[in-house]
Design brief:
single chain, alpha+beta, Arc Repressor Mutant, subunit A, 3 domains, six-stranded mixed sheet, three-stranded antiparallel sheet, disordered N terminus
Length: 310
Amino acid sequence: MTAHLESTLSTQLQTAAQQAGLVVVSVDAGSDFTGHPTTRFRLGANADAPAEKTLLLELSEAFDFHQPELLPEMTSHLREAASRLRNPRPDAYVTLAGLPVSFSQFQWPFHRSTSGADTYIVHGTLRLEDGTQSPLHTLVSASMTVTFAEIVPAPEQPYAETFIYNAVRKTLDRGQLELLKSGNRQPVPVTTRYYSRWQKKFFFTDTDDSSRMDFLALKVYWLSGVLGGSQPVWIADPRDAQYLNTTAAELQRMAADLSGQGLLKIDGEYASAMPALLSRGEEYHSKMQAALAVTRPTFNEEMRAGHTNM
């Protein structure tokens, strides 16, 4: 770590990372969308962790998270990240609709909209991860309303990444994002409809035992079986629990049921794909294609084919 980057923030982050079972692999100076200075921390399970098994955490240079309303969520974020980094692809997720995707190149923290809208914006990239190095991706522009921003403790990565990723997944489920070989940024609106002030919790999708089991089977098939060489993946991820409107404990219970069916091999909070699950490959690839079809603008395709009464 270079001397000029030694700061209160760096010292605080090193301590918090150590408590979460992580180490700071590197520290670099950066800048946010508007050019304000940031500090970019690369965290891993150990100092020799490969880049794909590290977490990039970018914080405003002057950010102080050692406050009663901020420290608990930072601690939770890092502890969850430590568990997620044990996945073969820590950046990869699945959607309820059946799409395996990865999140990358998010430019934290939020910045105010430059178009005059009264919103906060964060940009990132979403890629299809079907094991074929597919070129399909989308550049996303997630916009948080000013009203919604009042709910968020700080407009920084540890306090927003989970609900932003889940809002993107929900938008995909609705067929409102298209995965392309190239294209402009596509909007992901994040509003108070995703938050219950009464329950003080985020809400994205209402699920039951059946849909949660389907989700976990999809997750382990894609992230363990296809992308991970049958290495175990974290099935008690609170980020998935929020997306599915359930708890990590319930996800573990669902995974145990799948294990009883011979589909998963359970090891604590992690599960790997068994041959019986891998045999469902044709079904899950068909599900993925159907989900991709929903995201395509069929109205425009019909117009291109001349099927219009205009």
